[in-house]
Amino acid sequence: MLQRTLLSLSLILLSSALKADEPYNPYASVVMQPGSSGSVWGATQVMYVQSLAAHNYALAATQKEKAKQEAVKTQIQKLEAKKKEIEHIKWELENKPYRADFEKRVQEESYRMQMIAASKGDIFSGYALEVLRKRMEPQSSLLTSDITPLPEQLLNGGLSKRINFTDGTYNASTGLLLMEKVRWQGLLQDDIYKKDREKVEELLKKGLSLAERGEMTLPIQTELKGLLFSLDSRIFDNVQVLKEKGAFDPYLFTAAKGQLRQIQESINFLSRPNPTETIFMKKSIDARTVGELIILMRDRGWKFDKALVGNEQAYTTLYNAMKKAISEGKFQ
Q1: Which residue has the higher pLDDT, 69 or 113?
Q2: Which of 36, 155, 175, 276 is the most exposed place for a label (fewest CB within 10 A)?
Q3: pLDDT for 151-201, tens place per residue?
Q4: What is the pLDDT of residues 187-219, one digit of tens each?
Q5: Which of 285, 153, 274 is closest to 213 using CA atoms?
Q6: Which residues form the signal peptide (predicted)?
Q7: For the chain, what percentages of helix, strand and coil (3-state, to nearest 5) are there?
């Protein structure tokens, strides 16, 4: 503020000192007119004001030039960053594997692992079977009827009874509905649950029968939900008693909870808008060889679902048959 005031004052002094017919003399004193107030400015004060004005002008010019240089520097940095980004993108396009290539390598590694020795968990979950199916499915020209006959237990309706399939849609799993006889596991084998087990099996059969005829299953769903809630509560109470006695077995508890989830899956399936068609397609699945099975699943858009209790051996048998079909050289 002081510098601005001094600069303005210097301009006033300079303008008053300059006359049209006289050259400017920086050492001339400025004499106040009679009647005016203020001080008399001598040559020293005039020179000080002039030098201050020149300094301020030079400072402003310097700052302006510095700001200009900073702007240019910032722009250069942005261009350099953009150049590096373009170079990185170019490198990725030239050297980084595409997503499809990466997924292919993952599939190859999964296939290799499942062919060497799949774990029971991978087999019973359907994962190992899915890996092998995906290996064979694209080679449709090789999927002929003479490719590796299916084991005896999977013929004549054995597939629909022992192997679970899904189309990947919501509530596609039929749970325990298609099982001829529910094999109760874990804590649910105890006699205290006998009446509940019999009631669940009865409701599952009724629900399946109604769904096959295209009739409403809502009352069955409601009753099954009530039983499911009751069983869950009773199992929890039983666990507390077993823990107090020191006789609690986590495996038995886990097995029982797993079957409760399968009952829930059965309820969820019955709640589908039209479960009839899916039931018919699952019960009608029939194949004599591994090749026919893969073709049928491809045409229907099906995948392998997880095994239910009691179907583990069938899954293992089918897994070995699929491995054999590949090992015979039919698929590479």
Answers
A1: 69
A2: 36
A3: 888 887 778 788 888 877 766 778 788 877 888 888 999 999 999 999 999
A4: 999 999 999 999 999 999 999 888 888 888 889
A5: 274
A6: 1-20
A7: 70, 5, 30
Residue 165, phi then psi, degrees to nearest 5:
-125, 155
CA dist 196 and 123 (Å) reads 31
Which residues have CB under 8 Å from 9's CB, separation 6+?
49
> Where is pLDDT greater, at 330 or 212?
212
User: Mean pLDDT score of the chain, rounded to an integer?
Assistant: 78
Instruction: Give the chain's length.
Output: 332
String of DSSP letters for 213-242:
TT---HHHHHHHHHHHHHHHHHHHHHHHHH
Six-digit token string for 119: 């774990």
Q: How far apart are CA 305 and CA 172, in angstroms?
A: 9
Q: What type of residue sits at position 163?
A: I
* pLDDT score at 192: 92
Domain positions in the chain are 2-30+41-95, 102-330
The residue type of 109 is: E
Write the DSSP assignment of 85-124 as a string of letters.
HHHHHHHHHHHSPPHHHHHHHHHHHHHHHHHHH--HHHHH
The pTM of the whole model exceeds 0.85: no
